[in-house]
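hey so i finally got around to running both of the ones u sent me last week. sorry it took forever, my laptop kept dying halfway thru and i had to restart like 3 times lol. anyway pasting them below in the order u listed, first the sequence line then the structure token line for each. didnt double check formatting much so if smth looks off just lmk and ill redo it

first one:
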Amino acid sequence: MRGTSLAAGLFILGVLAGPALGQITVLDSAQDQGQAQPVDPATPAAPASDAPPPVCGTQPLTIARMSWSSAALLAEIHAGILAEAFGCAVRVVPGDLAATTSSMGSTGQPAIAPEMWVTRIADVWNAASETQMLRSAAPSFAETTMEGWFVPAYLEATFAGNLAVSNIAPVLSTQTQESPVRFISCPADWACAVINRNLIKAQGLSDLVQLVEPANRFEMDALIAEAVSRRDTFLFYYWQPNAVLAQVDFRPLDMGAYDEEAMQCLAKLDCAAPKPSAFPAEMVVAALAEWVFTEAPAIAGYFQRVSFPLDEMNTLLAQLNEPEASVESVAQRFVAERRDLWGAWVGTTP
């Protein structure tokens, strides 16, 4: 995602009150029917009901669909799988990171938010978590680092398979006989532009790359596509999940270890002594209302097993660019064709 993810006592009280309410209902029914009839000793007593609780729970099973494409796809995909594999009646509702988190923490609805970017709304998330009305399941994606530096796959041999940023300077120096190698960054008014400028200095690449900061996202994509079509030697910054990384074959550069102190400086315009660091990992999780864990453990178990591979999501985002494609049609196609992947999430084999 870029730019743009009541108290437990009430639940407990409801559970404790359940049996008593059941007894009152039975007594009232008996009174409505008149006097009790004599019981024939030869008539066997009706067996006590031992039916298991509904697999989907007894509360509305709602899924928050955020406004960005990957979150919208996850909402529709999970709704389809829950209907297909568990027979649940699922309703997809509009969502927003902060508002959805607050609502889940106060009312337990929506029941599920499949792509919650916790680090972006840390204060709201922490406040909602304190109510014990929601908690996280598995990470939304199998990978946690969502941004970095990349090269086209056709350059892998040029770097002899060693794609560590700390080792690419000697190779780049042989590629700069006529002009520096271009580094396509993000637009200048984005935070990542500042980080990339400082990282280039920190990695000792200032004299080896020509920094290009496009005017907007569309120019950024166009520059990358044009460079690939010419088979240029170039580096670029990008983030995931994103369709661009599924449309052309790219390789991530190894940025080394994450250094929190170094990153704090890298994010400043006036970082006096930039030091290398990987981009930080993002906490992106599927958030569930607490009642899902207690009332629908099979559904909670499903979300505790689901971490969507980023390359799969990138492919789905690329499919959204196909003529007449929609979030709903791409999600339905995934559910219909990729049981080999989601079968493990529901505990079945293809």
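and the second one:
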Amino acid sequence: MDEVFRGIKIRDWVLAGGLTVLGFILMQLNVHTSDAQVDMAIAEGSMAHTMGSHSPWMIPVFFGATIPVLWWRRSVIAVTGIAIGVVALHDVLFGWVIRCGAGLPLAFALAFLGALAYERTRAWIVFGLGALLTVVVLVLDAAAGPGALVLSLPVLLIVFGIGRAAHHRTALTQELRVRDQELRRLRDEGATLKVADDRARLSQQLDGLLQERLDQLTTAAESADGLEPAQAKALLQSIESGSRQTLDDMREIVGLLRGGDTALAPTPTVAHLDALLARHHTAGSRLTVTGNPRSLPATVELSAYRIVEHLVTALAGQAGSPIDVAVRFEDDALEIRVNGPVGKSADVKAAIARAKERAKLLGGSVDVKVVRGQAGAVAQLPVFG
């Protein structure tokens, strides 16, 4: 039993139920209308022909045409074929009775469903079957008569056209949804490629720096032969200082993920965040600094600036939308909070990926949540020494 009713939706029950109720009301009218009433209606012009039967069996027989509508999703063609067969049998068994009040809505509904469900060829097959059903309904209809075909068939065509328009609109919506998903996938891939490109540049910078500084230190060490103790000590101190400078420069480059950052003079720091907000946003934006503000290692300062830069660029909402940046200096960490609206054209995922990569290089983290067009980011950067 479950298999029989599988796939039937509530609106299918409503449609089939409505058509069945119409059929019940109409067949009850056929059963209880007297011949005298029919003669009077013919005289008034409201009926086209005398009724050939008042049998109550016409009620359950007509149900055989409307109840199968429940299964239209499996095959509109089959359901329409069944309706044609049942109504034709109704014609043979009961002759001239009123069928148009329920039969025509049934034909119109099936034509619409066929146009909605099928592609062009099969849809037109359903239209042809719907036209045949319309003929079978009206050929022995006591109320409207065959003359009503002149109006019924154009109406059937109009209903069919509405169904085709709905079909095309549904297909277009599905295609747009697929393309939107494809664009999202391409955008994610683009963000990944940008991060990979930054890493490649970083690797090249590290390699060049190490090669240059090692060559300088090797040359200095080789020049120590034959020097006085005091001169040798001074040279060793110079080598030590150079080694520390090399280590600091390595940390600086590791804190960079975009080519060209090393050329900035001076290197951006937390103190430059006010200027960053003023450059990107309106007066509604604000910077809040709490804790114990102090000078931090250059790598932390630069990374903090770049993280905020990535995030505020992505959180560029409509003109006038404020961006709030809060920086808290803790004893062993720097906490950064950025809140604001997400711009419609902003590449948020790419910005978040860049910010997370920069924080990760220092052993920190970036967490971002987006709710109803508002984003909130929290970055934690460890501070040593």
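quick thing i noticed on the 2nd:
Residues 10-178 form one domain.
anyway thats it, ttyl
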